[in-house]
Amino acid sequence: MKYRWMYLLLAAEAVLLIVLCLTGWTGSAMDAAAAMAFPYAALGALLRALSLSGAAGNTAAWALYLLLGLLPVAWLLIRCARRRAHAEDALLAVFSAVLFYALYLFINPAQLAARTAPDPGMYAEMQISMGGAALGCTLHAMLLAYAVLRVMRFSGEKERGAYAAMRWLLYAVLAVLVFGVFGSGLSGLLRDVEALRAGNSALPASDLAVSMVFLAAQALVQALPLLLGIPIALQALRLIDAASAEPYSEATAAAAHRMGAYCRAALTGVLLSQVALNLLQLMLADAVRSSSYTVSLPLAAILLMLSAALLARLIERGRRIKEDNDSII
């Protein structure tokens, strides 16, 4: 199986998230802020520990600080020397400057709180967390912008490079989808369960059984677009593999048709699950103590389905034109 390693990594991510949720991770604002600040906050904490360990540690901290901050610029210079730099590579220099600033603030938490979250009504730990999240989001946004711009450049220059870039983007999409289902989705369900128990502490557990079932159903319906997005992303990987081997082959057209079928099935499942859950909640309204009526239009799924269907038609038409040209020749 070509993507066995990827399946194992995704399964490991899911198991890790489940364990974290069951052992106390709640996906709170503080947890979200820590996730946004990763790995820069961890690097800053490491540099601070080195700096405070003594003269030798302080020297090592400075050396590592300069090395980390200059890495993006070094890559930019390498690309310039190879005459491969483009306009989007200027983001590397900006990223390097922001990285120096962010690491300095992470090394000095008091400065981090004062400069990025100067709210006198917020306690120090929250100020540091929110400031770290702001810095992390800024750096992650720059990396994401650079990656997408590079993919766009690949698509106009090197076909093979574009396929490789799209694969890596799909790997990232799969990781985010798994996190959305087994991380934020499960932690949200556990928070809702605790809130239901706290709000109905005078009732026996048996009286809350139906409500607990509906909480799980609500969480499943909310996570369904993400959950069904996983097989769609996997099918997109197979489509990329087929297109990179031969863009107008029967295998590529079949992969595009399968992706369209996956999208249609996913969209149908998302819409019907909302209808079914809302109807069940209406029918059992007296027994359900935590209702959540859902009305959403999954525009991303609709666009993906239409794009896959159009792509399948274009590939099929291109394959027929190629066959006609080959027969003439």
Q: Could you explain the architecture of this structure?
A:
By secondary structure, this protein is mainly alpha-helical. Helices cover 82% and strands 0% of the residues. It has eleven helices and no strands. The protein has helices at residues 4-22, 29-37, 40-52, 55-81, 90-107, 109-116, 124-157, 159-199, 209-245, 250-283, 299-328. Helix 3 (40-52) packs across helix 5. It is flat, with a radius of gyration of 25 Å. The two termini are 38 Å apart. The model has no long low-confidence stretch (mean pLDDT 80).
Number of strands: 0
What is the gyration radius calculated from CA atoms? 25 Å
Summarize model confidence as the mean pLDDT.
80
What percent of the residues sit in helical stretches (DSSP H or I)?
A: over 70%
Largest sheet: none
In DSSP terms (H or I, runs of 4 or more residues), the helix count works out at 11
Succession of helices and strands: HHHHHHHHHHH
Structural class, by secondary structure, is mainly alpha
* Unreliable parts: none
- Tell the overall outline: flat
Give the distance, in angstroms, between the N- and C-terminal Cα atoms: 38 Å
Portion in beta strands = under 5%
